[in-house]
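Worked example

This section walks through a single chain of length 196. The input is the sequence exactly as stored; nothing has been trimmed or padded.
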Amino acid sequence: MKALDLTFKDENQIIKLLKNGKIGALPTDTIYGLVGSALNPKTIEEIYSLRKRDTAKPMIILISSLDDLKKFNIILTKEQTKFLKKVWPNPVSVILPCPLEKFIYLHRDKKSLAFRLPKDKNLLKILKEVGPLVAPSANFEKRKPAETITEAKKYFEGKVAFYVDEGKLKSKPSTVIRLYEDGTQIVLREGSFRGS
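Given that input, the structure is written out below as tokens.
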């Protein structure tokens, strides 16, 4: 497969490819991610395979608004909504219960999923059009995340549909928080976001 070299100006092409179940490497709000539609089980399995990722580990899902959570049958409590409105959009990934069997391809029998509402306007445009995307870092599991598209190509040359180059990106991964129905939070990973 000959991958396309694109920029965010080619957003219509990026949107079309992602809607058709294709996978690409592009800048997220933290680092380069390997992205694909979260609502396409075949795409999800392909990303696990490409990244040599542990198939028991769920991936973080990028969304464009709180409304996107309804696509996963997640109904927020008042306390959860209040907290999410305070921390999003930001590099904060929040784990919420998602026990439905039909999403087992995403939650890998963990019965919960991690979501992030990014601040990046280019990414948000794409998310609004395509819907939720998984976006694990662009590297093989346990290897160094790609900081440039050249590094991403070394991992995935010929195996993904497109690359979006935004120069060198270096950032901590997102902060990961488990959020309970009563609004209680547990920080599971300290990342690039320092919030209250």
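What to look for: The chain has one domain: 4-189.
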